User: Fold these one by one.
Assistant:
Number 1:
Amino acid sequence: MGFNFASAWEAVADAIPDGEALIAGDVHRSWATYEDRAARVAAALRAAGVGARDNVGLCLFNGNEYLEAQFGAMKERCSPFNVNYRYTAEELHDLLDDADARAVFFSAELVDRFSEIHDALGDVALFVQVGADGEVPAWAVGYEALIESHQPASRIEREPDDLWLLFTGGTTGRPKGVMWPHEQMVGTMANTYAGMKMSLPQTVDEVVARVHDIHARGYVTRQLAAAPLMHGTAGIAALSTHTQGGAVICLASHSLDADELWACVARDRATHLTIVGDAFSRPMVDALDAAAARGRPYDLSSIFLIMSSGVMWSAPMKAALLDHNPGMKLLDSLGSSEGAGFAAKLEGSSEQASTARFKLGPNTRVLTEDGRDVTPGSGERGRLALAGPLPIGYYNDPEKSAETWPEIDGVRYSIPGDWATVETDGSIVLLGRGSVCINTGGEKVYPEEVEEALKLVDAVIDTNVVGVPDERWGQAITAVVELAEGADLHEDQLKAAVREHLADYKAPKHWVEVPKLLRAPNGKSDYRWALATAKEALGLD
């Protein structure tokens, strides 16, 4: 039998029962307790008639319960999937209906939204409310009551093609469920094991052998999920951490509190942090600066690696983090829900920190629209194409699956739409996602490259760049900007800053200042919101 996460983690629990697996605030759970509680979740699913290949939604804030419910679903060969807790009742209904959800775990804070839609989700056999167990609606069961009322389910045989479903953010269109077989997802973790001078485990016995070796060497990962677990960056990191026999740490807050984060790092001795670009690192740096100014800097000595994926992570923010802890490493990973390991950059010096410059992964190509490899140094733009361990497609969408994972020269690739150029030395410069590319006067401009230039201005806290309708240009480049408190910048100053780094035609023609830039909880840009905000401010339909 090939690799399966649930079977692997059961074996880990048997091998290191007293080792820490979950930490959330003051609650620490051993591997034995983690496995026991997940087995009780599995028993509840089994009793409700939810089993192999059924989809189980997790509409939960970060916490031990998220990971227990996910493990429990995997035990029954169900496919757990992430649900964005910021969705409205209507959006939740549409996603859960599209996903054919058979069970849903939801945070108590969201009960009003689920009260509106539970009747319309007739295929859902089990609603489980996490938190506030004393006030559970009649149509649901409280999580702790469910745990207490079920004995651990017996272990079963599983398959390597059992699925972990990862829904895309939906910030530019309807969310799509990416189907990751367990054996393919673990395949994306080869570089992690290679960094520890180990081969990728293929069987349960090999997983256990690696865990014993990792513990003997003192490499045990304590992964602080600063980003939401329902985002791929933290979600995949958690899968990897538990497969190594490590512990996943969750913050008590439901939104980023940088002081809480750094206090947690010091208290729980986190070795790894998962964040999402500047949306996380900027307040983290501000908190470090403030603590240092008070003469009480945070203890960062336990941190080995901070990893970001999915969005731009600017050079100034990287450099500022490294200035506070020169001994740690920063991993800027270029990946997506549709494929992990397109490219990466590992940095450990503030002097060398850069933005959107990556080294291609061994299975990655940059292809022109007619299928040629981009010539290094040519200035040609191409789309990133990744081979290797891949998802099998989008859930219930074979047409888009064929578009995103085409076969080229007999090899299947993931091509989600990220554009880049290739430098003479073979490194790539990421331009951005084609779906949000702006066509202005016949020229293609990628929002991320303009955003990168703007973020080099000290007074710019955050920005999104969009294209608004324009009679002359087709689309006019427009920057939605959040400025530092008290900042007094004029449009001509911002334009000049952009023109220092980019061609003149890439400079925004309109500027919209907002008190706070709205981002998705995973830190990604919400371009739909930015475009609507820009159009409203400019009086456009």
Number 2:
Amino acid sequence: MVDKVASSVVVCQGGLNSTENYLLLDATLPGGAARLVNYEVGIYGGYRRIEGFVPYSDTYEFVDNTNAEGKILGLVIYTDIDDSKQILAARKQKSGNTYNWYKFESGTGWVAETTGCTLNTASLTAEIVKIRHAKVSFGNVSYLVFADGVNNPTVYDGTDWYQLDPTGAGTSVDPGGNQLLSAPSYVTTFENHIFFSGDAEYPALVCHSAPEDVFDYTVASGGGQLLTGYKVKQIKPFRENLFVFGTSDIKKIYVNGTDFVIKDVTNNIGTIASDSVLEINGDLIFLAQDGVRTVSGTDKIGDINIGSLSRQILHLINDVQNNYNLDLLNGVIIKKKSQFRYFVSASTLDALGKGIIGGIRDNQGQASWEFGELAGIVTSVVENDYISNQEVTLHGNFDGGVYQQESGDTFNGVNVTSVYTTTFLTLGDPLIIKQSRKLRTFMKPEGPITLNIRLSFDWDDDTVRNPDGYTTETNDILTYYDDGIAEYDDTITVYDVVDTSPIKITDIQGSWRAIQITYTSSGDYAPHSIQGFIIDYTPQGTRP
């Protein structure tokens, strides 16, 4: 008598969930992941291994190793006065305790700017963690405004550099004014004003410019200051408010008539990482003590709701909080993917790096967040903008290099290691013994890849023998006629290309009540998506 073979289908969705117990995940989210490293929400469904990064310029990977040293302090993509896109990077100079800005010029490399500004990398009380910037246009002129936490703020109009000073008269010849903070760390724009905060000497103050003026911070012209009552960690505009984040507080600044007014949002939560505050898909997200949270509007006019997104990855959140320097955290939004990435490092010398990746999946018209872990990307600063209508994400590192993410198959020559581990799957009944037959993995390869497969049985019971590992390979991408799908009689016509099947079949062994599958890859491979899998097995009955 031939044993009856049963099959169970699992669709990969739900993302990393390391908080819930195995039985609950098995029952409610079988396509979730107990571990998910360097995978994102797949553009073809399932989980997609992320792309690599490459030097922004193969010829000029590092910013002036002859005269500069250390990390990239600041990085910005901007539009100059000729309406062309440019890239600026800042790095400490070897001689003296100063830093300089460099502009990238095709065919020439990183060319030092003559700023005329006094830009020190350290003072008696502080050292620059990173240089933050804001982009603003007043009239027909576009400006970059910089804050580094040590020096007076600076302004760049694409040609000339200006340094603001609290003793200044508020003109382009003598910029600044009596309301300006002398060494702010954070800068943004709100209601046609420049706002600064994060001054070590006055940590609870927020200051702003006169209307539509990057140079004037005098009270006579409309410059001003607002007192928060706590140390400011970040300022970020969102809808009709400017949100002012502390470690355990959030306030909002809004316009009332002709005045700016500050009001409490909450005294119970704030951000523990300044550069985790990002706007994405109509929400403002930030890393709080208990995970990734959102600030969003409610149905009540002017009311605010603060919600939690990341309960399912509390173990990862705790790891990031306890073992990494959150002052070094960098956050970025990849707009085309509705995705954010947080990068953290234990120190400036951490060669591994870690991070959190979050993306939005459209599940039958319902948007839901899914998360994973990043590993192997170390950043000192991150920037995202458009160049030639293409979204570009750049990062600088601690060695002085500038790199383009979402490009290439490796991390600048280092293999991308990816891991997807399922929860333990009982396939409907945890008491029934199952005999393994086949594992059918549905994939979308974007080039040749090798996947290693490991099986674990019965919730890691050490009395149960697990089989040796398996390997599956694909030698090409899935190729359809005319780059599309030809349908006839409810079938899909695929031209014969070696090993292009989206289904990789693996003969598997072993008996179990619950099975866990781990897919890993590490090599110079193109990205791939794991969309789901089918487990073929033979029920063997039950035993005590």
Number 3:
Amino acid sequence: MNDVPTNRLSIYLIKDSYSDHQSILKNFDKLTKEEIKDGSETIGTLYFGGSHLFEPSWIKDFFGSSFENNKEQNAQDENRKLKLFNASSKAVLLIEHQNRIFAIPFGYGWNLLNHGVWEERFGLKTTLNTVDANNLRRIDKKNMSSIPKDTSEQLSREGIAADFGIDIEQDLIQSITGKSKDETFGKSITGKDALSVSVKIDLTGIKEFLESCYQKYSSDDYKKDFGWIDQIAEVKDPTLTETLNGKLIENIKNNAVEKTWMAVPELVDWADVLGFSYKNSMRDTSRQDDICLSDFLDSLSEDDKNDLSVEILKRKKIFCFNAQNDQIKHQWSAYNCLYCETNDDSNEKTYLLSNGKWYEVEKNFSKQVDTDYQELRNQTPSFTLPAYQHKNENDYNEKIAQNDNQFCCMDRKNISHGGGYSKIEFCDLLTKDKKLIHVKHYGGSSVLSHLFSQGVVSGELFIADKDFRQKVNEKLSDSHKIDNVINRPNASDYEVVFAIISSSDKDLEIPFFSKVSLRNAKRRLETYGYKVALQKIKAEKQEQDETED
């Protein structure tokens, strides 16, 4: 074994539904294959395509015609040739073991695999069962608390998961690198869909090594230290995605809209929004106050309604128009504006469509989040905000304060504050009985999660920072000023209210990831002592502008 060189291997586990090599590989008929044996034992089959030389793109892109880098150049220009070429090679070794197929690509060999044929998170799960939980080095993750954000963090020395600031309820772990506690897998191991290792393994020991990989993958030992990793995962399997999209279309056609609706997928400045339209036509001057699934469906032609498909939903656009000039300010595909939840009792999973992507949520986690949300939603509010019939949120907040001296409007009275924060909105409305009200139009996960985050940031600073309280006090009306900004306020005297404007006649329903964000925001605020409430503001059809004055 000592004579075996260290090889860097990436290993994929093929789904058991793909049993023949032709279904696994792209352009199968154009590939060359070679049976690989160790003595008399067949190890697997190597598939490869022809290698070729090609000129690096930077020669032409940067140097232009300064150099001619081709074989047909005149001999007198021989000295001007760079004679620089890249070579591509791609091969993949398919090994059948324990009634499963493993794929080991070499060079650009991963390009030979059909998308969706491998087990998602095979490498991640194998790594979690092999890595030392106290010796993690790198984590790639996607945070779903607001606008989905991909980050890659690497520590200067090994640490634990907490050192990466992981939010176990809102972070999707995509890849982990750490120190192996099993010398079979080398010193360091990385797992994503593929397992990446540097090991003293060659052809003679590969089957035994794959057996070890499969044993690790099949184990549930990871749940002791990393059980939370199964709570949320992005669906990457194209077959499953197709099935889920089919359920989405079925729900829409059957008007099963309890868990299917539309929402603006990103943050917009509602003060600058004239309205929305499902047609990009200047002749169509009708503008909707908000986007709605039933209105969108009504805008479709009869043919599109009858043959509704994901392709149609992706092709159709929803337009947001600027209030200043009636020009298009934003546009999104209808598919990206859709939100859908569906359950699969066979595998105890909940699937969510959010911002154009499907996610898989462990059912118990989904139930816990939904239960907490229902409890908060069903609480009887201590007061009721009036219906929304206004130009925008700012107009609404100002009118409430004008009509009722219990309220002080703080909307758009942003506070610049150091320590990494900038232009913080303390709240939209403050009442004399100490309710901090944050008002926001209903929207997708990114919209509402931003609202909840805003409430947490202002609430924490208000309690912890006297300088922030002083700045808040300077913007408050005399009737609502804080008596003593030096002394730390008693948070239990205050209630943080998240008020969401919705045109729906039903109980307020928000996307799952927003429920998670709300749940976390509530926990953090309650840690300080705040009371937390959720309230729906009913949006009614806007009357003529004269009624607004």
